[in-house]
Amino acid sequence: MARNIGSHYTTHRVLGRGSAGTVWLGEGPSGPVAVKVLREDLAADPDLAERFAHERHTLLGLEHPNIVGVHDLVIGGPDARDIALVMDLVRGPDLRSHLERERRLRPHAAVAIVAEVAGGLAVAHAAGIVHRDVKPENILLDTTTPRTRALLTDFGVAKLIDEPRHGGKGGVVGTPDYMAPEIVEGLPPRAAVDIYALITVLYELLAGFTPFGGGHPGAVLRRQVTETAAELPGIPRDLWELMQQCLAKAPASRLRAVELASRLRELLPALEELPPLDLGDPAPADGAGRADGAAEAAVDATDPAAAPGTPARAAVPLVRGAAPDSERATHTRMRVPDADELAGGAHGTARVIRPVGQPRAGSARHGAAARRRRRLAVTAAGLLGAGALGGWLLFSGGEDDGADGLGPAGPGVEQPDDSGAP
Ligand SMILES: Nc1ncnc2c1ncn2[C@@H]1O[C@H](COP(=O)(O)OP(=O)(O)OP(=O)(O)O)[C@@H](O)[C@H]1O
User: Fold this and answer.
1) Which residues face 70 on adjacent strands?
2) What PROSITE patterns does its record include (predicted)?
3) Residues enclosing ligand 1, CB less than 6 A?
4) How confident is the prediction for the chain on average, in pLDDT?
5) Is the pTM higher than 0.90?
6) Ranges 17-31, 40-54, 242-256, 274-288, most confident
7) Of 1, 46, 113, 384, which alpha carbon lies 20 to 30 A from 142's?
8) CB 328 within 8 Å of CB 268
């Protein structure tokens, strides 16, 4: 049923749901738009409404072909409880859905997408805006043009929702798989966190899994701080060197967005003919269950991420709590693993990428449930300080609409036990 948002916009049908609210297809004075209506419980927070109003200028000011433009911010509604962002309508899938379908992208396609997003980030960073939640879910693909265009969305929303409520200490909300080590260490997020996250996305597009994902969110955060990304077999040397530089633990060592965009563009011609990286698992055409077991056979049976009923990855929304307008489960509290647990025990938790055709003995198949995507909101308050850990991880759990996830402990990847389940 059509619903009015402010005096200029009408919403018609749901395009998608995120942790912060629901995105609707809408109509405005100049044509179709996407309208993100924040969750009622968030919108009811007067501080949040105030922050959105305060940042109106920033939210509306970013213009770039690779950034989803925000046209308007509506605060009000019949009961004065709506907060809605009116955005460019992007016709096409988000990068998460695209990757789930493709499983792994050709290096040229992956680098082209990431170079475009880096271009958008460069403009935002120059304006002093850090995205803070770069991940495939926040990259939309416009497929209406002859050449698909990638657009980064949700600018500024992470910061607004993340701010401490009443001047108290806020946690850091983010997505463990893409979270830069300095955030885990409690430092304020600067532009370099977006570079780290974006190159993590590139790694995922090439490999089908993130460098440090899998298992307990606390273990993922620990790996972000302590481990080194495994080199992907067959990746061109100069591309890998650039990726390593942007995955550096020290933020100052990473490239700036503008440099990254141009370096990636320079690499493109040499990547044109390359097929997707061969990590040893025949990609199923439909991206659905790998019923023949050829791929699943490589997954470590001890990996909690591979256990039936355990989510394969942790794509994390911005905010805690269940969306009242979605079917997600309510949030759950869990303890951050202590320093010892986070040290990973004697065996560590880094993935080992095996050479093609070399399955690991004693490995087991993924359960169907292990491929489900789960969303978590993580608050990491001073997670790793002087080697000791404190605080809590707060996460909301629930599955999305049943799309198969790309398990970080994907085929061809070993991930020793890092169980730190609550
Ligand atoms: N500007 C847009 N145009 C078209 N569709 C959009 C637009 N913005 C979002 N969507 C759709 O709505 C879905 C939900 O978007 P939203 O930003 O609320 O959540 P998310 O980024 O997927 O997750 P989260 O907010 O939890 O991190 C997206 O996956 C996409 O399919």
Assistant:
1) 87
2) PROTEIN_KINASE_DOM, PROTEIN_KINASE_ST
3) 15-21, 23, 34, 36, 68, 87-90, 94, 137-138, 140, 153-154, 317-318
4) 71
5) no
6) 242-256
7) 1
8) no
**CA 132 to centroid of chain Cα atoms:** 10
pLDDT in tens, 202-260: 999 999 999 999 999 999 999 999 999 999 999 999 999 999 999 999 999 999 999 99
Distance CA 333, CA 316 (A): 15
Q: Residue 360 burial by CB count (10 A; 0-12/13-18/19+): exposed, middle or buried? A: middle
Quick one: pLDDT at residue 159?
66
Domain spans of the chain, in order of start: 1-89, 90-367
* Amino acid 18: pLDDT: 83
- Tokens standing for 393? 């991880």
Decide yes or no: CATH 3.30.200.20 for domain 1-89. yes
Q: Which CATH number fits domain 90-367: 3.20.20.140, 1.10.510.10, 1.10.10.10, 2.160.10.10?
A: 1.10.510.10
Q: Which of 133, 177, 194, 418 is catalytic?
A: 133
pLDDT above 70: percentage of residues in the chain: 61
Give the range among 27-41, 62-76, 299-313 with minimum mean pLDDT.
299-313
pLDDT band at 362 (very low <50, low <70, confident <90, very high): very low
User: Closest residue (by CA) to atom 13 of ligand 1?
Assistant: 16
Query: What average pLDDT score do residues 184-204 get?
Result: 95
Find, among 147, 149, 13, the residue nearest to 90 by Cα: 149
Which protein residue has the closest C-alpha to ligand 1 atom 23?
18
Which atom of ligand 1 has the smallest separation from the CA of 154? 17
| 52 and 160 Cβ atoms separated by less than 8 Å | yes
* CA-closest residue to ligand 1 atom 9: 23
- Distance in Å, CA 85 to ligand 1 centroid: 12
Q: Which atom of ligand 1 is nearest to the CA of 20?
A: 25
How many CB atoms within 10 Å of residue 390? 12
Q: Whose CA is nearest to atom 4 of ligand 1?
A: 90
Quote the ligand 1 centre to 300 CA distance (angstroms). 33
Burial of 320 from C-beta contacts in 10 A (0-12 / 13-18 / 19+): buried
Please indicate whether residue 48 or residue 142 has the higher confidence score (pLDDT).
142
Q: How far apart are CA 200 and CA 126, in angstroms?
A: 22
45 is catalytic: no
Tell me which residue has its CA closest to atom 20 in ligand 1.
18
